[in-house]
Design a protein that fits this description.
Number of helices: 13
InterPro entries: Aromatic_CoA_ox/epox, Ferritin-like, Ferritin-like_SF, PaaA, PaaA_PaaC
Structural class: mainly alpha
Bound molecules: Phenylacetyl coenzyme A
Number of strands: 2
CATH topology: Ferritin
Helix content: 55-70%
Strand content: under 5%
Number of domains: 1
Low-confidence stretches: none
Enzyme class: oxidoreductase
GO cellular component, one term: cytosol
Keywords: Oxidoreductase
CATH superfamily: Ferritin, core subunit, four-helix bundle
GO molecular function: phenylacetyl-CoA 1,2-epoxidase activity
Mean pLDDT: 96
Radius of gyration: 22 Å
Strand order of the largest sheet: 1-2
CATH architecture: Up-down Bundle
Largest sheet: 2 strands, antiparallel
Length: 324
């Protein structure tokens, strides 16, 4: 949406926007904002919404094979929560003028991204626990600072999402604690799932700072409060003691406490793997997008029916108004 305004008015609007950001107040949907800010917010929120929706697939894969009624109920509720997060986020993007059908179209034709992590398969039930522990854990680490993001509707959606993600993280950790108290086979499953998900979880935070084209501007605008590398480091420091308590080994021979830095050092991430996943060449990219596309196509009749019902209700309301 490009708006050309006379110069003095444009300057005033820019000044008000800058003041809102520097005073750490929120930008609201009716406020003027630079086109580039709107575009960045739509990009990030759409990617985030798509991640929540595509993120239902890896764990959804285990709903019918959960090992008990309790685990099944918990997993169903968790996957449903992720759908809810997607819905809040699409609504937040709509307040910026984005169109939900357009965003879905861009997702299923590969023109908008979703998180790299959901392109990895879930091979055993331990993956459900590890996703809760590491993937939701990384998501919380990344999203808690977003509760203070400068765009009001996004920041407010994040508050509720973070509360639910914290619960998800605990359910994953509780599942893993239970498995670690079980048989040798169960313990081996947890270790094997941790080995597969550790590095992709670190990639969730995005490219290293020197290769992150958006960080600097997003930090100036108060969208991001920390860089990708800062949050990744925070996640490593938070997770190491949790792994020790659980009794699993994180698959990184270079991971050790650095007394001087007061943080953990960790090994080099394979960024060529991240780049390949982003290009569509991860283990499950094709399957994830195809599945989403099929669900969208299968749901066409529901959208048509809802649209027809809304039109009929509006017409009836208009008729009543004319009659009264
Ligand atoms: N995967 O310049 P930067 C969840 C893209 S929700 C794919 O650093 P930015 C809940 C990036 O978009 C997980 N693409 O970008 C759950 C950019 O693309 P461009 C999702 C990635 O935006 C749990 C390009 O690379 N969370 O897990 C990734 O400043 C369990 C350059 O990167 C969010 O979306 C990636 N990992 O920082 C659900 C949180 N990283 O410019 C189910 C909100 C980067 O070509 C089960 N988003 N890219 O369009 C953010 O915090 C930021 O957007 C970052 C990236 C940190 C992800």
């Amino acid at each position: 949406m490009t708006t050309t305004l006379p110069a003095p008015q444009a300057d005033d609007l820019q000044h008000d926007f800058d003041a809102t950001i520097s005073d750490d107040r929120r930008i609201e949907p009716r406020d003027w904002m630079p086109d580039a800010y709107r575009k960045t917010m739509i990009r990030q929120i759409a990617q985030h919404a798509h991640s929540e929706i595509i993120g239902m697939q890896p764990e959804g894969n285990w709903i019918t094979r959960a090992p008990s009624l309790r685990r099944k109920a918990v997993l169903l509720a968790k996957v449903q929560d992720e759908a809810g997060h997607g819905m809040y986020l699409y609504s937040a993007a709509e307040t910026l003028g984005a169109d939900r059908a357009d965003m879905t179209g861009k997702l299923i034709t590969g023109r908008q991204k979703y998180s790299s992590i959901f392109n990895y398969p879930t091979l055993t039930y331990a993956d459900v626990g590890v996703i809760g522990w590491l993937v939701d854990g990384a998501a919380i680490c990344n999203q808690v600072p977003l509760c203070r993001a400068s765009y009001g509707p996004y920041a407010r959606a994040m508050v509720r999402i973070c509360k639910e993600e914290s619960f998800h993280q605990r359910q994953g950790y509780e599942l893993l604690l239970t498995m670690m108290r079980g048989s040798d086979k169960q313990r081996a499953m947890v270790q094997e799932a941790t080995n597969r998900f550790w590095w992709p979880s670190l990639m969730m935070f995005g490219p290293p700072d020197h290769r992150s084209p958006n960080t600097e501007q997003s930090m100036q605008w108060g969208i991001k409060r920390h860089t990708n590398d800062e949050l990744r480091q925070r996640f490593v420091d938070m997770t190491v003691p949790q792994a020790a308590k659980l009794g699993v080994t994180l698959p990184d021979p270079d991971l050790r406490w650095n007394e001087e830095r007061g943080r953990h050092d960790f090994g080099e991430i394979d960024w060529s793997e991240f780049d390949a996943v982003l290009k569509g060449d991860g283990p499950c990219n094709t399957q994830r997008v195809q599945h989403r596309r099929a669900a969208h196509e299968d749901g066409e009749w529901v959208r048509d029916a809802a649209t027809a019902y809304a039109a009929k209700t509006a017409a009836r309301r208009a008729e009543k108004k004319v009659a009264s």
